[in-house]
């Protein structure tokens, strides 16, 4: 984005506008309201036309800084014209006694289309009533025009006093700029501010601004790689650039950041990088404000595509236009981070020099250097690793990798000067260094460190080392995936996955990941597992499947890292299959034996199974906050245990009939304190699938629940239990069986705002439905959660009892929920008769929406299909629903014409094109977590009822 010389005159005819406003205000002192009303349409028109021109020029030339300066110039002249009207025609005595100045970002001469206008009105110590009224009139006109104005009215003395006490006020005055009025007042404030406030207070100001920046980063997520970043406040955003301006201006006493090149703080190349970064971020921010019509600072999914188009990005074979734009954005924020480190290094060097009168934080800048045992290249400076001399990297480029290794071994932070030297030495990382055995040994040691490997990898990545040392990693640096599921860029996701593995490795996840915590010490190929976790998504953004391409990359990189052939093959297999366990656990029926046997055939060994489980956990945890939950952990543990039995030869060979009979006897024995009649009645109430898949403890609880309902004569009853570990709340429903009961319950949960995490649905031998619905937990406190679950139960009971009609309540909720049209998911329906020995498996993929679950189950019931089990899994905006079905006589669906009808009807539901399919039926839910609907009953199914 090249900047152009700005011709401001094309935006606004200042003289003509001034004459028109003068004519309106002539003789207007006695009719203030009429003058304001008459000025308003004239100024509004001029402002709108000028901003439209600024927007058009932004689209034409692409410079964000030019656009921000144009809008600031327009704002200046509108204020000047209003001020002139006031002092000439309304309050003439106020003119010589008032200065209107811009402060904050506006004081720097840049303004975004929707930004606030920060003004400081400077007055003499004793200001007359006319001056106060003049300020009020000017402010009222600005407010009438729709501007958000932050303002203060103070004397010079007040400004000096307050700026000494308040760092925010001090920062605002630092960038004060006269717009109009009495220049002498502004000049006095600037000279006194420099002499009485700025002088000798540099260290305190710098420390305050850096602390303020760190706190802001923490609130914004403490990473620049969030896929919906805050362009103004986020890490690497415009506020960070402004912080650099403030620090440079305060410490080096410069008015223009370009002067930092002359002072030797930045190189000419770094200064150009600075300009490009600022120009790009301003272009993005201005486009966002123009597009949304407000001060929108979050670059959310719903505007990213339009912004990328406005800035001229186009699709490429491997990346869409929006992904290319966002990658550029993240690379720019990384550049801002580099520049911050370089400036901080220069500041430390400056402040380390003896200077009279420097106190406070200056002590942390004084050098206290000591040797690091076993290292001649580096020294320790106040707990930070630094270079022993400036030529270390040039003499031996391996020392670039060694710097991070030594820092990790000794738990040292990084001196900004060392990181600046790294950034300026990246060209030394060439093919020779990449193939160097010692460099690769050091890197593998960093990756598999027992300390903080993710922290070190993140520092290497931010310094540009990781992408240079592993060029394949460099290709995914700053790459984002345009979806709601992924919260971070690909490189940040991989580093967070290593972080999750390190936590498991240290035994810190006993409560959250009990199985992984137990298995990790017994993983034979620990190094291979770490490499697989770091590289599992390294081939993202390629045209071929990233798992296959990633395995090929691993076969190339692993020998370079020093891994043995056996380890290399394990890494390649793990990367090739890294999605397998997650997809099977969340989209397949884990009670179907063929699911387990098919999975076991692909895994083949217990060592692979252990490593794949841990990799899967780390991958899911690194997707983003809230993606992992206890229910997903339960699914993975179930799949692991079932597969472990098969791989170890321990899979039960006892027939299902015999095992079901033993389970029935165990239930009867557990009810030993009941009457003989009740024991017989309630232990024989269930079919094989229930007896074989429900824990005995739950069977006993269900028996008591059903007996109590029978004694009370309730045909419909509900029961609630919370489970904080799995982050779910369990609602058990006893009701007369009905072919569309699942749809009705799902709709009722949606109407109550509950997201289903699992549903186990069974039919009793006396024709009733016993459904256990697990909903995602919403409150930490059990009392609050039980109260909320009671509301859901009442909704289910009211709907089943006919007291409420779901179409109206669901329609209301669907209207209230904003439909996300940002994403497109190509609808897909596949039918397979090979995934299960007993059932036809229907897999549906499409864009998630309110009502999808219930609508699909209605369609399957209309098509006379019996749902035996299902998995409903949502990945951000995409849902993958898998149904295990038979026809009404218990056979697979093999007729091709019938399969075609199923596909057509389900695709219609996905795209919401045929409203008659609903026919007033209730809508389903949007499920953020996998839904396991285990419907197990005899051949006389609900669809036949």
Automatic annotation (TrEMBL):
Alphabetized Gene3D superfamilies for the sequence: 3.30.70.260, Beta Polymerase, domain 2, cca-adding enzyme, domain 2
GO molecular function: [protein-PII] uridylyltransferase activity; phosphoric diester hydrolase activity
Gene Ontology biological process terms from the UniProt entry: regulation of nitrogen utilization
Pfam families assigned: ACT, ACT_ACR9_3rd, GlnD_UR_UTase, HD, NTP_transf_2
Span list, region Uridylyltransferase: 1-373
Stretch list, region Disordered: 921-945
Domain HD per the UniProt entry, residue ranges: 490-612
Protein family membership: Belongs to the GlnD family.
Protein name, per record: Bifunctional uridylyltransferase/uridylyl-removing enzyme
Source organism per UniProt: Rhizobium straminoryzae
Taxonomic classification: Bacteria, Pseudomonadati, Pseudomonadota, Alphaproteobacteria, Hyphomicrobiales
